Amino acid sequence: MRARAVALATLASVSIVGIGWQLGTQAIDASQNLTAATGGSAASTAATEAAAQAAATAKAAAESAAAAQTQADTANTAASAKVAADAAAAATAAADAASAANAAAVATASSPSGTFTGSVVQTQFGNMQVSVTIANGAITEVTPLQLTNRGGRSVAISNQAAPILRSEVLAAQSASVQNVSGATYTTDGYLRSLQSALDTAGF
Amino acid sequence: MRSDCERMPALTFATMGTMVSLRLGDAEHGATALTAAAQQVETVFRRWDEQFSLYREDSELSRVARGDIRLTAASESLRDCYALALDWRDRTQGVFTPHRGDGVIDLSGVVKALAIAEAGIALTDRGLRNWSINAGGDVLVCGDALGHDWVVAIVDPADRGESIASVPLRHPLRAVATSGSAERGQHIWTPRNFEPSPFRQVSVFAADIVTADVLATAIVAGGEAALGDLAERFPIDVLAVLRDGQLLATPGLRKPLSRTTTAIDRFSSASSSARADAPARPAACERRASR
Hints:
The structure holds two protein chains of two kinds.
Chain A: H1 2-25, E1 34-35, H2 40-61, H3 63-67, H4 74-93, H5 98-105, E2 114-118, E3 121-123, E4 126-135, E5 138-146, E6 148-150, E7 153-155, E8 162-164, E9 179-181, H6 187-191, H7 194-201
Antiparallel strand pairs in A: 1-2, 2-4, 3-4, 4-5, 6-7
Chain B: E1 11-15, E2 18-24, H1 31-52, H2 60-66, H3 76-91, H4 108-125, E3 131-135, E4 138-142, E5 150-156, E6 159-169, E7 175-180, E8 199-206, H5 209-233, E9 237-242, E10 247-249, H6 263-269, H7 271-274
Antiparallel strand pairs in B: 1-2, 2-3, 3-4, 4-7, 5-6, 7-8, 8-9, 9-10
Helix pairs in contact in B: 1-4, 4-5
């Protein structure tokens, strides 16, 4: 199962990187650099290296798409950094694949830490901006501050469902459960349902 | 242990072929007001059931299905409901459909959720701030449960006496609906390309119950492609059970060990654009939207 999770995570990363690469090449503003709120140049280096590695991955996986874009101008680098971050987020979300993701997307150089906010990138779908939290060189959180918008719909590239162990599912702090959600039970089925037990107990 | 005065007993009644469990907080409103509120909820469900249930021969929709009434001559509320369902068909690229295999209009994919939503609005309009409505496993909550989050357990499709997760229902994702591919074979009409769904069960958390219900159905019918597409386009969280028991979850349903983007974040940061994806009917509980 672990091997499968890692494989899926890698696949997700690669495909997201591929999509992001296309988006990145369409970024209009060439002056968008990932600006570090804290940590300065070390973090920028980390992001750039992550971008480079991600770009290499994308190239290998989608040669026809990526090979044409080997000249990494500034805009591409900035966009790819975001893509690398999102790829890392998606990969992290896969079961126990965090180390693989970090290896793929995080520079090994100087282990920077801090929260870094990317500048607003204009894409054909609208503006996009993310912040990335890095702890000891590992991306721990990616937050979209601004999402692209296409036809009134938000377009994000980081809400993909990934394999997850039962023990990893979000668990409520409170011990009390009031409701059960499942495929619809019949009136008769209710009597044998968990919901019936909860309702009788009055929680 | 909770003392008895802290308990919130469930009021249950049968409707639409299933059971509704209603919990009302706000004890300060008094027993009379809460009883009246519960009765109104029951009335709301009965009205939707009487108008739209195909297993009732006398329902308006049954008469439309038999050709006794032409669709153009049907009531405005029926046509509105049909239009809403068609709108969801478009938004899901046809994966969700209000038509049965034999062409009959079947609005059961939205009617229960619409009834839940309307009941929720009725409770909010009465000034009730803390309640939960569970209709056959589709849950909408408002506020909290005696100071705690409302918690919903997701049934294990392999053993319906067990749960696979207990998830807090918080603003803005305060609705959850679960669709299965096994229990009610006819509940989902469109297996695209007529292959069995890869999912045994799909739960969708959303800001409103209609979105949750429709998208849960659509993901079961549309498989992993629909899951990927809809999780991107709508501010939802999804917990899906594959046929072999493996779980798939969006980041928002992962323990906050390494919290990445959640649907809640996306909803908050893109609420203006996400509104466009909200259903035609307003979600209940909007007074709490600024919490």
